[in-house]
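Below: protein 1.
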Amino acid sequence: MAKDWAEEARSLVEDVLGKHAAEVDRTGRIPGENFDELARRGFYGFLLEEGITPHAVIDTASTLIAGCLSTGFVWAQHTGTLRRLAVSGNTALRDRYLAPMAAGEFRCGVTYAGTYSPPTLFAERDGDDFVLSGRAPFVTGWGHIHGLGASVRVRGDQESLASLLIPLEEVDGLHPRRLSLIAADASATVELTVDGTRVPADYLIDIKPITGPDPNRLLLADWTNGVLALGILARNLTELRALGDDALVAAHETRYELLRDRFVPALGNADLTYSLRADISHANLAAAAAVMVATGSRSLDPHSTAARLYRQAAFGLVCTTTHPIKQQLLAELEPGQSAHG
C-alpha cells in the first residue's frame, strides 16, 4: 500500500516541527533534529516515489511548511535540485548522487540566478571545466547543505543555460553574506558571491542553448513554489480555528479549498499559475490580518504567534515571486480589486 505522505507530514509536524517553530523563529536557529527526522521519514526523496501525484506533492509540502516555515523552506530547495538530477542525462552523476540525496545524506540548495532576466550568475568553458562568476542573490540553507543546484548562463558564441551540481566542500571561490529576513530568518539564506569557482563537467546536470527570450522558463518552479504560500495560509487557518470564530474559519477554509483545487489544473499553464500564485498570497494577507485582529493586543508582541504569521504572510508576497506573479499580484492589490480565489 502506498504511503500517505500528507499524513506522514502531519505526524512529523505534530511530533517535531510544530513543537520547535516558535523557538526557531525567536532564536533564528533550526535544530538538527528537524532535518534528521525529515531524512529518517523519507521526505528528502519522496518526490521519486512511484505513483506520487501532484496533489500528494502539494499537500505534503504545504503541511511541512505550515509546521515550520524555516525548516520547510530549507527542505524545499533540496527537492528542486533532486527533481532536476532525477531526469538528468548524466548517468554517472545521477548514479553517484541521486540515492544519497533521496536519503537526505547529501542535502542541497538551489539557485536559478543564471535563468533570471537579466542573469546574475555566469560560466565560461575552460577545457572540460566551467568557471563560474557573478552572484546568486538568494541561496537558502547555508550551513545545512552539502551541495548547490545552480542554473548558470554560459557565455560563448551562443549563450546556453547550464544546470550544475556543485559540491560545496570541493570548490573554492564561494563567498556567502548572511541575509536578515523578516520571516524564515533561521533558514540561513545568503547572498552568494562567486569568484572563479571551477566546476568540472562531471557535475553537469544538463545544458540547453538559449534561442531567445522565454518569459516562462521558470514556469515549473513558479508552480511548485506556490506551496510555500499555501503552507503559510494553512498555518493561518490552524490558528484561526484555535481562536474559535466558526464563521470566520469557515469563510477562510472555503477560500483555501478553492485555491488548493486550482493547483493541479494550473500545472504547465502560465496564466493559471501566475493568477493562482497571486491569489494565494493575497488570501494569506487576509487570513494573517484576521489572526492579528482576532488575537487582539497580544498580537503586538513581536514573538507572538499572530505576529509571526503576519510576517510570514508578508514574506510569502515576495519570496519566490517572479516578475509575472509580481505584476498579477500588484494588479490585485489595486483599490477596488479582489482575489479570484
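Below: protein 2.
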Amino acid sequence: MMKKRLLAAVVCLSMLLGSAAGCSSGGGDSGSTAPAGGAASSSQSKGKEGKDLTFVIVPKCVHAWFDEVNKGAVAQANKLTEELGVKVSIDYRAPNTADVAEQNTVLQQAAATKPDGIALDPCDYKGSKAVIEEIQAQGIPVVLFDSPAPEGSNLTSVGNDFAEQATLAADKLAETIGKKGKVAVMQGLPTAPNHAERYQAHLDALKKYPDIQVIDGGIDNDNIETAQSQAAAVLAANPDLTGYLCCDASGPIGISAAIKEAGKVGKVKIVGMDNLIDILNYIKDGTMTATSSTMPQMQGSMAVLMMWQKHLGIDIPKTVDTGIAFIDSSNVDKWIEIVKK
C-alpha cells in the first residue's frame, strides 16, 4: 500500500505539472475523495451567475515552500479559466512572518475583498478560530491546506497524513544510523498543527529503538536562518550526535547548512521534510540522506478545486490526501527535474 501511495503521488504531480488537473493519491484512511482530471465545462459549473472568480491563498509566511503551493493554485486556476469560460484568479497573500496576529490581519483584509473562497495554512488554529468563523459567517468558503482540520471545525483539510510522513522519516533515519546513537529532533512552529503532529510522530516512532537517545534539536519557527543557528548550537554541544530530524521545509535546509559548516557531513545523518530544490540538492551532494515530502503544488491545485466546489454549494470531502513522496539518492535526479519544471 505504501509503495502504491508514493507512486500515486509522483503520478499526480506529473499530471499537475503537465495539465494542471487535480487528482487524489488515494489510500488514505480518511475515506475522502478528490476530483480527478480537469474542471467540468457545463454552464452549471461556472461561477455563480457566470461571474469571474477570485480565490485567496493565505500561507503561514513568506517561504519558498508556499511559493510552490501558489504555483499549483495558479495552474489550477488557469485550467478552470479555460474550462469554464470565466476568469479565475488567485490572490496570494503571504504574511511576512509566521505570526498568528499578522496572519489574522491578512485574513481579515482578504475577506474584505469578498473573494469566492480562502485557503489557509494556520499558524495557530485556536488563535485564528474566531476570525475563520467570522469569514464563514459572511458566506465565504474556507478550506485548510497543509494542516489537519480540528475536530468539530467543519473545515476541509487538503494535505497528507503528517504523522505518517514523520514516521517514514524517523524510521529511515533509525535504519541509516544502525538503530543506535543520539538523535536531535527540531521543532518547526510549535503552534502549527501539522508541525506539532510531525514532531510528536517523530518522538513516538523513535521510542521503538531503545538504543537511540533523543535530544532537543531546537525550534526553527519555519525559518531557515533560525534552523541553521539552532542546529549549529546543538552540534557544538553534542559532538557525539549521529542524526537529525525536523518538522518543516526550513529545518532540513538550515540543519544541512550547519552540518556542512561544522564539517560533519556523513557523520551526522539527516532525514528531512519536503522537496524544495535546496533540499534535493543536499540529497544530491550527500549532505542529507533522504526526505519525506509533501506535495505542495498538488495541495495548491486541490485547494482551489475544493474552494470552487464549495463556492458552488457542492458538498466536499472532510480530507483530501495529496500524498507523500519519499526521496533519496535513488530518485533525487527525477525529482530535481520535476521541481524545476
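Residues 53-160+296-323 form a domain with the Rossmann fold fold (CATH 3.40.50.2300).
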